[in-house]
Amino acid sequence: MTRIAITGDHHGIGMRPRMVEVLTARGHDVIDLAAHVTDVVDYPELCADLCRAVQSGRAELGIVLGGSGQGEVVACNKMRGIRAGLAYSEFAVDISRGNNDANVMVIGTKVLDEEQALSLLDRWLATPFNGGVHAERIAQIARLEESGGI
After folding, report:
1. How far is it, in rounded angstroms, from Cα 91 to Cα 111?
2. What is the set of domains in the chain, with CATH numbers?
3. What is the CA radius of gyration of the chain?
4. Is residue 101 within 8 Å of 129, Cβ to Cβ?
5. Residue 84 · residue 26 · CB < 8 Å
6. How far apart are CA 93 and CA 85, in angstroms?
7. Which of 40, 89, 100, 145 is the most exposed place for a label (fewest CB within 10 A)?
8. What is the largest CA-CA distance in the chain?
9. Is 28 helix (H, G, I), strand (E, B) or coil?
10. How far is CA 39 from the centre of its chain?
């Protein structure tokens, strides 16, 4: 069982309940941090809340549901220790998890329908980190966060 935090703005409100249902049915402990309104909601603070849950260990992984997902991935990656990947294809998911050890998956609900998103989520959760040379690159990224240099 994995503790997974999930959030989403007004664009993610339609997809979030099904995603929570599927994750819960598969035995995951889901922490729902989403806006539960249909009004326009700014995503940066939602992303920050989710990333703080991952940073603190309250959640092991995070899922962010936005419109395109572009702004959300930028916001998440401003947070120390967060490696957010934009899930738009199987290739992108394989790279974000396998090579970049992404701990946050960002889904654009204007880009993917629910079934595509759930399929990519399954793939993301099942893809292990490759380690090796990629571990050294992750360490270099951590040094960039600390000092601005490698």
Report:
1. 15
2. 3-147 (3.40.1400.10)
3. 14
4. yes
5. no
6. 7
7. 40
8. 45
9. coil
10. 22
pLDDT of residue 87: 98
**Single-letter amino acid, residue 34:** A
**Residue 115, both tokens:** 């079934």
Burial class (CB within 10 angstroms; exposed 0-12, middle 13-18, buried 19+) of 81: exposed
Query: Is the full-model pTM beyond 0.85?
Result: yes
Token look-up 């966060």 returns: 145
By residue count, the chain amounts to 150
- What is the DSSP annotation of 53-99? HHHHTS-SEEEEEESSSHHHHHHHTTSTT--EEEESSHHHHHHHHHT
Q: What is the pLDDT along the chain (150 residues), one digit of tens a residue?
A: 899 999 999 999 999 999 999 999 999 999 999 988 788 899 999 999 999 999 999 999 999 999 999 999 999 999 999 999 999 999 999 999 999 999 999 999 999 999 999 999 999 999 999 999 999 999 999 999 988 888
Helix (H), strand (E) at residue 49: helix 43-56
